[in-house]
């Protein structure tokens, strides 16, 4: 009986359904996407530092996070480099950039990235299914981080995004083709208001 069982398990374990290769390819794509975003961010920082009387990026205001070209880079990473997976970018108090990718509907850091300093200047994440709004998870995130996060974007495509600031903590301005389309609001319990 043991030989039959061993033969059976060898056959099962040798069947290549391509899943292992797919997982390897996704990990390579995650690395490529993160490097692509980081490189674009560093290019923006370098450009911003040209012509200023210092070379300290911590002194720069709004380095890249309000830059729609940078948003397009993040969107490209989420939908072209990756197979429609969420990407998040966090710009910390030192203007350092941290990037991670998740699933098609969720993204996080497995732990707070080493070296990240509070407050978070901006949190940017994608909704690769093409709709920029705050989900219940997003509302909980900005509510929890409200005192330690200055601004946030959710990207739903090129020119389609939502923008949140902690001085207006219960609303997200949603833009389509870079024009304000509507404002999403919610109450203290995180429920959307009409």
Report on this model:
By secondary structure, the protein is an alpha+beta fold. The chain has one domain. Helix content is 35%, strand content 25%. Helix 2 runs antiparallel to helix 3 (68-81).
Quick rundown:
Helix content is 35%, strand content 25%. It has helices spanning 2-14, 19-49, 68-81, 136-145; strands at residues 87-91, 97-101, 120-126, 149-157, 160-165, 171-176, 179-186, 192-193.
Uncertain runs are none
Distance between the termini: 67 Å
Structural class: alpha+beta
Number of helices: 4
Please give the domain count. Answer: 1
As a percent range, the share of strand residues is: 15-25%
Oligomer: single chain
Main sheet attributes: strand count, strand direction, barrel closure: 8 strands, mixed
Layout: helices, strands, pairs:
Elements: H1 2-14, H2 19-49, H3 68-81, E1 87-91, E2 97-101, E3 120-126, H4 136-145, E4 149-157, E5 160-165, E6 171-176, E7 179-186, E8 192-193
Parallel strand pairs: 3-4
Antiparallel strand pairs: 1-2, 1-3, 4-5, 5-6, 6-7, 7-8
Task: Provide key terms for this protein.
alpha+beta; 194 residues; single chain
């Amino acid at each position: 009986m043991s030989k039959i069982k061993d033969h059976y398990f060898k056959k099962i374990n040798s069947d290549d359904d391509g899943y292992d290769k797919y997982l390897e390819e996704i990990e390579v794509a995650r690395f490529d996407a993160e490097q692509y975003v980081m490189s674009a961010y560093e290019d923006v920082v370098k450009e911003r530092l040209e012509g200023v009387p210092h070379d300290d990026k911590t002194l720069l205001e709004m380095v890249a996070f309000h830059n729609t070209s940078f948003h397009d880079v993040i969107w490209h990473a989420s939908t072209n480099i990756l197979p429609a997976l969420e990407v998040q970018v966090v710009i910390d108090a030192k203007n350092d950039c941290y990037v991670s990718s998740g699933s098609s509907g969720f993204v996080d850091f497995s732990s707070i990235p080493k070296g990240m300093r509070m407050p978070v200047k901006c949190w940017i994440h994608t909704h690769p299914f093409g709709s920029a709004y705050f989900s219940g998870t997003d509302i909980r995130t900005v509510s929890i981080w409200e005192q330690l996060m200055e601004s946030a974007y959710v990207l739903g495509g090129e020119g389609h995004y939502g923008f949140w600031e902690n001085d207006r903590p219960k609303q997200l301005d949603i833009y389509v083709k870079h024009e304000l389309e509507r404002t999403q609001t919610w109450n203290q319990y995180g429920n959307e208001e009409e």
